[in-house]
């Protein structure tokens, strides 16, 4: 069912865990569907310095989570935002057709984490501005 | 790249006997002549035909004996699915003038459920009875669902996923009192627990060969004398006109032999399997925190273990077990081939996320106590590793 690369990421997932006090965090999926992914980010100078994932889900869900963390470490936020679910599946050498929808949400989790970071920094920036105007 | 993940494990422990079983050597030996020397068509008049006919009729007696039926009430089919289709559609079509209501349950096999759905499209009304948290159907619910239009009740005997044994004797009695035809899918229970179609008041009973160490592609439908069916396959006058098509002689011979052996070994094997089953269930519940038994604790098929391991998903457990040589199954969406987890677990009220973490292990002849202990040794670390990776249940650890 799964190719060797998928199995490799499933049995030896990269970057498992959770960054404490992350700069950005994102969680997608739904326990009802059986796949939930959570990504935490450390951002430095506009780049992803560190990334970790936690996933409840099937083989494909875990493998795509692992794959996406490997793909985007060191990328700028702009570059990372361009990584799609499809690109993750392709980097894994393909997924079984029935896994392309529900279990292939790792890039969405990444994007949610980046957006969370952007939201937080924007808010911090606004607060900074507000303070300096006083 | 990851050849180590595809290495052949040292042990091979098959725990998916509800999916299928190997053909046992005695059965294969009985079948072999009917592929070669004894290749006749059972409908032919000549010696080749008579030889095949005799073999088919002997097999019919063995199948009938397993369920305490008259051999003339056994129709050979291609397996459980065809038997269920023939029973439901056959009765529905034959008794249409009497009524259009069918009673079944939400936890039937898809061979029954999807046939019922197809009958609904033809204008039949179907009641899908709920079950309790143990997967048990209440005969009182059956009674309440009966209307003057009810022509058929179909409730399975042994539940294929969670192993609950349904009270079909009581339901059969009700059906008889109301003059309603009663079908039961006994694919998982035949050969595992005693069945007596007369004592249970069953009019139609589905049995399959490959679940009891017979070949695939053959099964039977017990049809009580006097029960009318509209045949689903039309053609020659095979199987008393109920199922056209040249008999699968080697398959039928193998099925018969499998039934004979199952009947002979049932008392002892059922006891042995029940003990292994209880050892496995107890071991999992003891060693893995937040694990739950699915199905009935006592009214249970002797070979069925079904547990939910919270915070982890079924397929990821199956892949890890497979790597260590253990073959099991799950009711998670990923393994059911749909987006929904097992309809049986959901009907029992198991939450979606817990249903995704279900693990079914079904025991059989090849399994020993050492196999069970091996599973109990390898499963907790798998669960621990997956839980560490999981979004849910942070900090949960297995007791070692």
Automatic annotation (TrEMBL), chain A:
Domain NIF system FeS cluster assembly NifU N-terminal positions: 1-123
Database matches in Gene3D superfamilies: 3.90.1010.10
Pfam family, one: NifU_N
InterPro entries for this protein: NIF_FeS_clus_asmbl_NifU-like, NIF_FeS_clus_asmbl_NifU_N
UniProt record, GO biological process: iron-sulfur cluster assembly
GO molecular function: iron ion binding; iron-sulfur cluster binding
The protein, known as: Fe-S cluster assembly scaffold protein NifU
Natural source organism: Candidatus Fermentithermobacillus carboniphilus
Taxonomy of the source species: Bacteria, Bacillati, Bacillota, Candidatus Fermentithermobacillia, Candidatus Fermentithermobacillales
UniProtKB/TrEMBL annotation, chain B:
Catalytic residue list: 334 (cysteine persulfide intermediate)
Cellular component aspect of the GO annotation: L-cysteine desulfurase complex
Any one GO BP annotation for this protein: amino acid metabolic process
Reactions accelerated catalytically: (sulfur carrier)-H + L-cysteine = (sulfur carrier)-SH + L-alanine
Main location: cytoplasm
EC numbers on record: 2.8.1.7
Binding residues for pyridoxal 5'-phosphate: 80-81, 160, 188, 208-210, 246
Enzyme class: transferase
Cofactor: pyridoxal 5'-phosphate
N6-(pyridoxal phosphate)lysine modified-residue sites: 211
Pathway membership, UniProt: Cofactor biosynthesis; iron-sulfur cluster biosynthesis
Domain Aminotransferase class V as annotated: residue spans: 13-375
Pfam families, per the entry: Aminotran_5 (PF00266)
UniProt-recorded Gene Ontology molecular function terms: 2 iron, 2 sulfur cluster binding; cysteine desulfurase activity; metal ion binding; pyridoxal phosphate binding
Record's keyword annotation contains Iron: yes
Keywords assigned: 2Fe-2S, Cytoplasm, Iron, Iron-sulfur, Metal-binding, Pyridoxal phosphate, Transferase
InterPro entries tied to this protein: Aminotrans_V_dom, Aminotrans_V_PyrdxlP_BS, Cys_deSase_IscS, Cys_deSase_NifS_bac/arc, Cysteine_dSase, PyrdxlP-dep_Trfase, PyrdxlP-dep_Trfase_major, PyrdxlP-dep_Trfase_small
Family: Belongs to the class-V pyridoxal-phosphate-dependent aminotransferase family. NifS/IscS subfamily.
Role noted for this protein: Master enzyme that delivers sulfur to a number of partners involved in Fe-S cluster assembly, tRNA modification or cofactor biosynthesis. Catalyzes the removal of elemental sulfur atoms from cysteine to produce alanine. Functions as a sulfur delivery protein for Fe-S cluster synthesis onto IscU, an Fe-S scaffold assembly protein, as well as other S acceptor proteins.
Known partners and oligomeric status: Homodimer. Forms a heterotetramer with IscU, interacts with other sulfur acceptors.
PANTHER family: CYSTEINE DESULFURASE, CYSTEINE DESULFURYLASE FAMILY MEMBER
UniProt-recorded name of the protein: Cysteine desulfurase IscS
Species of the source: Candidatus Fermentithermobacillus carboniphilus
Taxon lineage: Bacteria, Bacillati, Bacillota, Candidatus Fermentithermobacillia, Candidatus Fermentithermobacillales
Name of the gene this protein is made from: nifS
């Amino acid at each position: 069912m799964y190719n060797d690369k998928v199995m490799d990421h499933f049995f030896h997932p990269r970057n498992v865990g959770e960054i404490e006090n992350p700069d950005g965090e994102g969680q997608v999926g739904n326990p009802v569907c059986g796949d939930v992914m959570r990504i935490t980010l450390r951002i430095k100078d506009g780049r992803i310095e560190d990334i970790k994932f936690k996933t409840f889900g099937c083989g494909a869900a875990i493998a795509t989570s692992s794959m996406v963390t490997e793909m985007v470490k060191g990328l700028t936020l702009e570059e990372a935002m361009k990584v799609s679910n499809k690109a993750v599946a392709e980097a894994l050498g393909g997924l079984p057709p029935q896994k392309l929808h529900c279990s292939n949400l790792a890039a969405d989790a990444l994007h949610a984490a980046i957006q969370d970071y952007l939201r937080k920094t924007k808010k911090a920036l606004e607060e900074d501005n507000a303070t300096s105007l006083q | 790249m990851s050849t180590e993940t595809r290495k052949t494990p040292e042990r091979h422990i098959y725990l998916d006997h509800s999916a299928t079983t190997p053909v046992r050597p005695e059965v294969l030996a009985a079948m072999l002549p009917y592929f070669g020397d004894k290749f006749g068509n059972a409908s032919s008049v000549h010696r080749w035909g008579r030889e095949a006919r005799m073999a088919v009729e002997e097999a019919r007696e063995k199948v009938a004996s397993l369920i305490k039926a008259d051999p003339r009430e056994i129709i050979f089919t291609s397996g459980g699915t065809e038997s269920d289709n023939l029973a439901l559609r056959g009765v529905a079509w034959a008794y249409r003038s009497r009524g259009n209501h069918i009673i079944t349950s939400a936890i039937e096999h898809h061979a029954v459920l999807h046939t019922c759905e197809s009958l609904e499209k033809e204008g039949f009304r179907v009641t899908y009875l709920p079950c309790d948290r143990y997967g048990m159907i209440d005969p009182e619910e059956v009674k309440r669902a009966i209307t003057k239009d009810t022509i058929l009740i179909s409730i399975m005997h042994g539940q294929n996923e969670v192993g609950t044994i349904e009270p079909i004797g009581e339901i059969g009695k009700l059906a008889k009192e109301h003059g309603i035809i009663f079908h039961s899918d006994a694919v998982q229970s035949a050969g595992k627990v005693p069945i007596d179609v007369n004592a249970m008041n069953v009019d139609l009973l589905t049995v399959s060969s490959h679940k009891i160490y017979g070949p695939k592609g053959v099964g039977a439908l017990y049809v009580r004398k006097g029960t009318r069916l509209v045949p689903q396959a039309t053609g020659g006058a095979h199987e008393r006109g109920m199922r056209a098509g040249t008999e699968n002689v080697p398959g039928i011979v193998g099925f018969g032999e499998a039934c004979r052996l199952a009947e002979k070994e049932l008392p002892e094997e059922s006891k042995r399997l029940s003990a292994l089953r209880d050892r496995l269930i107890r071991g999992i519940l003891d060693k893995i925190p937040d694990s739950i038994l699915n199905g009935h604790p006592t009214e249970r098929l002797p070979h069925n273990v079904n547990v939910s391991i919270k915070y982890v998903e079924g397929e990821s457990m199956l892949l890890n077990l497979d790597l260590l040589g253990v073959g099991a199954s799950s009711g998670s969406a990923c393994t059911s081939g749909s987006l929904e987890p097992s309809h049986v677990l959901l009907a029992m009220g198991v939450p979606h996320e817990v249903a995704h973490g279900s693990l079914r292990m079904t025991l059989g002849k090849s399994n020993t106590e050492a196999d069970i202990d091996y599973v109990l040794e390898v499963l907790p670390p798998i669960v621990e590793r997956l839980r560490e990776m999981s979004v849910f249940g942070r900090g949960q650890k297995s007791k070692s």
